[in-house]
Amino acid sequence: MIDRARLGKLLMGTDPRVRRMVAYWAATGVIYVLMIALMQVAVQVGLADRRAVAMLTAYGVCGVLAFAVLVRASAVLGISPWILSVLQGLFAVSCNIWLYTVSGPLREASLITLLVVVTFCTFSLRPRQTMLLSAVSIAGMGIAMWFGVSRDAAHYPPMVEALTFAFASVGLIAITLLTGQMNTLRARLKNQKEELLVALATIRTLATRDELTSLANRRHMNDVLADEERRQKSAGATCIALIDIDFFKDINDRFGHAQGDAVLREFAAAALGALRGSDMLARWGGEEFLLMLPTTQLAEATQVLARMAGAVAAMRLPEVELGRPVTFSAGVTARAAGEPFAETINRADKALYRAKAEGRNRVVTV
Ligand SMILES: Nc1nc2c(ncn2[C@@H]2O[C@H](COP(=O)(O)OP(=O)(O)OP(=O)(O)O)[C@@H](O)[C@H]2O)c(=O)[nH]1
After folding, report:
1. Domains contained in the chain, number
2. Torsion angle, CA of 257/263/267/273, rounded to 10 degrees?
3. Statement to judge: residues 194 and 235 lie in one domain
4. pLDDT of the chain along its 366 residues, tens only?
5. Of the listed 195, 229, 287, 319, which one is catalytic?
6. N or C: fewer beta carbons within 10 Å in the chain?
7. For this UniProt entry, which segments traverse the membrane (predicted)?
8. CA-CA distances (angstroms) from residue 278 to 53, 135, 294?
9. ipTM confidence score
């Protein structure tokens, strides 16, 4: 049995851009098949010459298959998408001009498809490239018509051919001018998309980060806790610590609010440096922080907080001469199985209160 996934990978490749181009060319191939079918009908009803149509059909089928291979191998061969588009456009134009010469009284129909080809190409080509394609189309069409008039003026009346040429040329020139407009529009949309992405990233940062310390903010921490609660309803191996810098008001009063801010920033950096990748520290409010330690026993959590106390005490702030190291008090507790985090935080808060009441610069576990 054929493995459909493997066959798909073989035909389309794995590169999303190549897959998109192969799919696009496959859709184009369907249009070629429909055109071939219509020409067969024209042959059957005696409107087109069988031999001439057979030659054009062979040219079309070979071209479609050759391009399918080229598109599929374009990444390996290093052919850029715009070169492929130009070549595909030129091939389609040549098919249409040939079609004009073999479709007898139906020939005007090939001009419709010629306009469709150029319109199609405006999506993938730059204005200059579309201009080139239109110029080739106009020249090719002119040659085909001149050839018809000079060979068989009875079936290709010169005035009819000249006017048809003029109509088709106006159509092609109009499409070319539209491409310029489309390109401006495309560039504007691209810029707007980039601006929106930047704005979205800023909004995301503002919504999840504390501006002063760059730690997670309370809202984001609450979201993370809610996620955690959903994920491990029965697990209890998460510890929560509430941490509060000691005598912070005193720092503000003695050295000013700006230095207080600097202490908060330094505290955040020092605390983060003492944590593991899986731990998460958030600014819970003012000079209070919440630390979440997933898959951690209480004894390990106490060790982490001791390490953090060491890092905070080692902070050096030349403008803040306290005469003592910066310290913090913390209350830490383990979440009971299935317990809502609100209750765990409540317990940690009570433990923090005790740590403050017992003299500060300590960790109380409950
Ligand atoms: N610089 C600065 N100060 C802040 C900020 N947020 C809160 N504070 C101040 O932090 C101080 C907290 O004071 P208290 O709640 O009395 O706590 P404390 O002085 O640390 O005393 P204990 O917690 O009991 O050790 C207040 O003066 C707040 O104005 C901030 O973002 N920047």
Report:
1. 2
2. 130
3. no
4. 567 788 888 888 888 888 989 999 999 999 999 999 999 999 999 999 999 999 999 999 999 999 999 999 988 898 888 899 999 999 999 999 999 999 989 999 889 999 988 888 887 888 888 889 999 999 999 999 999 999 999 999 999 999 999 999 999 999 888 888 888 888 899 999 999 999 999 999 899 999 999 999 999 999 999 998 887 655 558 999 999 999 999 999 999 999 999 999 999 999 999 998 889 999 999 999 999 999 899 999 999 999 999 999 999 988 888 889 999 999 999 998 889 999 999 999 999 999 999 999 999 999
5. 287
6. N
7. 21-46, 52-70, 82-100, 106-125, 132-150, 162-180
8. 70, 63, 7
9. 0.96
Q: Is residue 305 part of a domain?
A: yes
| Ligand 1 and 257: CB distance under 6 A | yes
**Residue 73 sits in which domain range?**
4-201
Distance 276 CA to ligand 1 centre (A): 27
The token pair that represents 191 in the structure block: 């810029």
279 lines ligand 1 (CB under 6 A): no
Out of 212, 217, 243, 248, mutate this one to test ligand 1's pocket (max ligand atoms within 8 Å of CB): namely 248
Ligand 1: which residue has its CA nearest to atom 31?
Answer: 286
The structure tokens listed for 40 are 């067969």
What pTM value is reported for the model? 0.61
Q: Name the nearest CA neighbour of 87 among 147, 136, 53, 44.
A: 136
Of the three residues 154, 171, 201, the one that is the final residue of a domain is: 201
Residue 209 lies in a domain: no
Nearest atom in ligand 1 to the alpha carbon of residue 252 is 1
208 in any annotated domain:
no
Q: Are residues 230 and 171 in the same domain?
A: no
Judge if the beta carbon of residue 287 lies within 6 A of ligand 1.
Answer: yes
**Nearest residue by C-alpha to atom 16 in ligand 1:** 249
Question: Measuring CA to CA, how many Å separate 14 from each of 65, 143, 364?
Answer: 20, 43, 56
The residue to mutate among 265, 267, 287, having the most atoms of ligand 1 within 8 angstroms of its beta carbon, is 287
71 with 170, same domain: the answer is yes
Total residues belonging to the chain:
366
Active site residue 287: yes
